[in-house]
Specification:
eight-stranded parallel barrel, two-stranded antiparallel sheet, alpha/beta, disordered N terminus, TIM Barrel, 13 helices
C-alpha cells in the first residue's frame, strides 16, 4: 500500500472558506448501517456524504473490508476528518497501554489527513495504568498532526461520567491535554444523564456525536433526532459551541442523499438558533 503524495493530500483536505467560518458537520459512516457499509464500502458512503453537503466523515476502522485496498482512495477524497478505532486504548486484563492499536490509529489518521483519532479508554485503571500515561504523552508528541480524543462508550469502565472524570484527572496530572468525544446517546445506555454530563465535562469536549435515543422494553436504541425521547437540543446547547458535530444515528430511506441532506439541515438550523 503506497502513501499518496503529501502535497495533493494536503490540498484536497484543506477546508473551504465556508467550512472554515463554522464548525464542521460530519457524518459517522456507521450511520448508514454496518451491513450496508461493509457491502458497498466506506468510499461509496463518503462520496454520498459529500453529495449531501457534509463537511467530512468519520471513518470506522471496524467497517474496513480491506484496509490495504481502501485507505488510498479514502485518503484521496480529503474528507476524512476523524478516524475511529474501536480497539481499547488500555487493555482490560492488565491495564497496559495498547501501543499497537494506538500506533496504527495514529499512522492511519495522519495518512488519511484526519485531524482526530477517536478511541475509548477501555480497561484504564487509575492504579495499574498510571505510569503508562507518560508513555502515551511521548507517543502523541511524535505525531503532532493528529489529536487523540476519548469517547464515552457504552461500558461501565470507559463510559460513565465518574470513569471519564477520574481518567481526565489522571491524564492532566501526567501533563496530557486530552479532549473528549461527547456521544449524546451513549449516556442513556449506562443510566446517566447527558445534561449533567455536559455540565460536568463540557469544557473538555472537542467533538460531538449527535444521536437521538428511544427506549424499547428491553433496551435503548439510536434513532434520528426528530424521534428522540431525550431533550437533544438542550444537550447540544449545553455543550461548547464551535466544535464539530457528527451524525451518528440511523440514516435510512429510498433516497439516502435526500435523507442525509435533511438531517444535516436540521443540525445546521439547530446550530444557527443556538
Amino acid at each position: 500500500m503506497r502513501r499518496p503524495g503529501s502535497s495533493s493530500a494536503r490540498s484536497s483536505a484543506r477546508p473551504s472558506s465556508t467550512v472554515a467560518e463554522r464548525a464542521p458537520l460530519l457524518i459517522s459512516l456507521a450511520a448508514f448501517g454496518a451491513s450496508a457499509v461493509l457491502k458497498q464500502g466506506q468510499l461509496h458512503y463518503t462520496r454520498l456524504a459529500r453529495e449531501a453537503g457534509a463537511d467530512g466523515v468519520e471513518l470506522r476502522a471496524e467497517l474496513l473490508r480491506d484496509a490495504e485496498a481502501e485507505l488510498p482512495a479514502l485518503a484521496a477524497t480529503g474528507l476524512v476528518a476523524v478516524y475511529s478505532d474501536p480497539a481499547p486504548l488500555w487493555r482490560a486484563d492488565d491495564g497496559g497501554l495498547n501501543l499497537a492499536a494506538l500506533e496504527q490509529g495514529l499512522a492511519r489518521a495522519a495518512w488519511l489527513g484526519a485531524r482526530r483519532l477517536k478511541m475509548s479508554i477501555g480497561g484504564f485503571d487509575a492504579e495499574r495504568s498510571r505510569d503508562s500515561l507518560h508513555e502515551l504523552r511521548r507517543r502523541l508528541a511524535g505525531e503532532p498532526r493528529v489529536e487523540l480524543v476519548i469517547e464515552n462508550d457504552q461500558t461501565l469502565r470507559a463510559g460513565t461520567l465518574r470513569a471519564l472524570q477520574r481518567f481526565s484527572a489522571e491524564a492532566e496530572t501526567a501533563g496530557l491535554d486530552l479532549g473528549l468525544v461527547f456521544d449524546m446517546g451513549n449516556w442513556h445506555w449506562l443510566g446517566e444523564c447527558p445534561l449533567r454530563a455536559a455540565e460536568a465535562i463540557g469544557a473538555r469536549v472537542r467533538y460531538i456525536h449527535a444521536k437521538g435515543v428511544f427506549r424499547r422494553p428491553d433496551r435503548w436504541v439510536a434513532v434520528p433526532l426528530a424521534e428522540s425521547a431525550a431533550p437533544w437540543r438542550a444537550v447540544l446547547r449545553a455543550l461548547p459551541q464551535g466544535q464539530p458535530w457528527a451524525i451518528e444515528y440511523p440514516l435510512q430511506g429510498e433516497d439516502l442523499v435526500a435523507v442525509t441532506r435533511a438531517e444535516l439541515a436540521l443540525l445546521n438550523e439547530t446550530r444557527e438558533i443556538g
